[in-house]
Amino acid sequence: MFLNQTTYEVDSRPYAVAVADVNNDNKSDIVTANLDSNTVSVLLNAGNGTFSPPTNYSVGYAPGSVAIADVNGDNKPDIITGNGASATVSVLLNIGNSTFSSRTNYQLDAYSRLVAVTDVNSDNKPDIVIASSDARIPISVILNIGNGTFYQQAAYAVDLQIFAVAAADVNSDNRPDIITVNAASNTTSVLLNGGNGIFYHQATYAVGSQPFAVAAADVNNDNKPDIVTANQGSNTTSVLLNTGNGTFSPQVTYPVGANPQSIAVVDVNSDNKPDIVATNVNSDTVSVLLNTDNGTFSPPTTYAVGAHPLSVAVADVNSDNKPDIVTANEHSNTISVLLHY
């Protein structure tokens, strides 16, 4: 289903990857957050799923996550990173011509681990949700006041050792809710949005051992987003179906490769059912689990990628209307691109 990888060099220790058309040429580009060099690398799509050498931009100290969204309403996608060691979020505005401004840093009260970008207060401006490994402030929300500037950090308590955060409207009230995975308690937490960017107390659900990544997607075609986690301690992925009103059924687990640490849920075989793609850092592979119907999944097919793949994104990078796989490979300072055939 996927061709052998093509690799591209980036800056030191790529820890996260995102894919979006950053220069409005209708081709998907790649952005990585590079932990040791305190940079993001932007690789422009040269056509046919090949990429130019990276352009690097400085961000805060030890960026461990990256998101791409138009935060200032100019129809150009901007870059947002969560910088773990400096307790900051960096925003790089897209100034056109495939270039980005110098970073603006926003100081947090706790180390930032991962970020998600979504409009939490229904003002049509994307806000930033930050997950932290700091037990004092596990979840923070900073609101967009326009022109890509942000203010007001609100904090919410969830279980300890948050390793990932996602946002989705799980209870069909047209407001995005927050989903985390919590490695210490082997759980996922759901915080419902009460309006105006205020979130209710969490509900928790059991998942596999040491969950490290989470995605929200409707895997059983009932128009309600479900939860999928990657569990590094048990080498599994957990699927929790949404039973309505933002509550979830007990997990069903599926085996993947060794030490899965990133996950994407996308329809990779064009059957209108979202499939699971997980990166396995100890086996240097990605696992693809096809959706066999009603939110159940086939055994995994594995593909080789670079050394220690910490992050995965799935997008059509060669304009053939088939989703391709992109991974960030921490130990080889590369990204891998696997084209769908």
Automatic annotation (TrEMBL):
<keyword id="KW-0732">Signal</keyword>
<dbReference type="InterPro" id="IPR028994">
    <property type="entry name" value="Integrin_alpha_N"/>
</dbReference>
<dbReference type="InterPro" id="IPR013517">
    <property type="entry name" value="FG-GAP"/>
</dbReference>
<dbReference type="Pfam" id="PF13517">
    <property type="entry name" value="FG-GAP_3"/>
</dbReference>
<protein>
    <recommendedName>
        <fullName>VCBS repeat-containing protein</fullName>
    </recommendedName>
</protein>
